[in-house]
Amino acid sequence: MKKKFTNEQKLINELKPNNKLKPMNELKYSSVKHTFEPIYNRESKILILGTFPSVKSRENKFYYSHPQNRFWKVISSVFGFENPLTIDEKRNMLLNCNIALWDVIESCDIIGSSDSSIQNVVPNDLTMILNSSNIHKIYANGKTAAKLYEKYIEFALEKAIITLPSTSPANAAFGLDRLVESWKTIKS
To answer: Which residue range is the domain that position 154 belongs to?
Structure first.
């Protein structure tokens, strides 16, 4: 039987370096700003929104850079591409599939990469993408991205978001095959 963890337990496990557990009062919030641009062009028809870049993505200044995140494998499988390895290959694959990619949050306070720790949210302004592309549908990569979109953005845009299962390694309930099957909806 799999043990279920609370958000607090997941956060603690995520942040323990060298398997040394830090007490909750030692975990530090950082005020962080999104530092890289969205990916889109005039032909973009769908917009996929994540929550906020992980520590690894912020270091690499590109989306879904954590090697365990399955985003690139899922998109390449759904659209029949080889798994892209370089930033240029990833960007080109998205644009060839008419996909725009960005995050809900422009800045926030966060502990590490933990979405469950996010506070003091400033949302991104999605109008620059929506006004200069052909977006028909907006998808959330996971429930947290969807909830934050609904709370901070949906009322202004009056566009609903469709929630897809998260490609994060924290979503252990979904293996790669199940994720790919769920994400095939973005092709319709």
So the answer is: 32-187
* DSSP state, residue 164: E
Q: Which pLDDT value is given to residue 12?
A: 47
The token duo for 97 is 């599939």
pTM given for the model: 0.85
The first and second tokens of residue 48, run together, are: 């996929």
Residue 25 lies in a domain: no
Tens-place pLDDT, residues 97-130: 999 999 999 999 999 888 888 999 999 999 999 9
pLDDT in tens, 7-22: 445 544 554 445 455 5
Residue 125 contacts residue 153 (beta carbons within 8 Å): no
Could you tell me the pLDDT band of residue 1, with boundaries at 50, 70 and 90?
very low
> What are the angstrom distances between the C-alpha of 152 and each of 1, 132, 147, 149, 162?
38, 21, 9, 5, 15
Using alpha carbons only, give the angle 117, 14, 111 rounded to the nearest 5 degrees: 30
Could you tell me the CATH number of the domain that includes residue 169?
3.40.470.10
Is residue 49 one of the residues assigned to a domain?
A: yes
Q: How many domains does the chain have?
A: 1
* Domain assignment present for 4: no
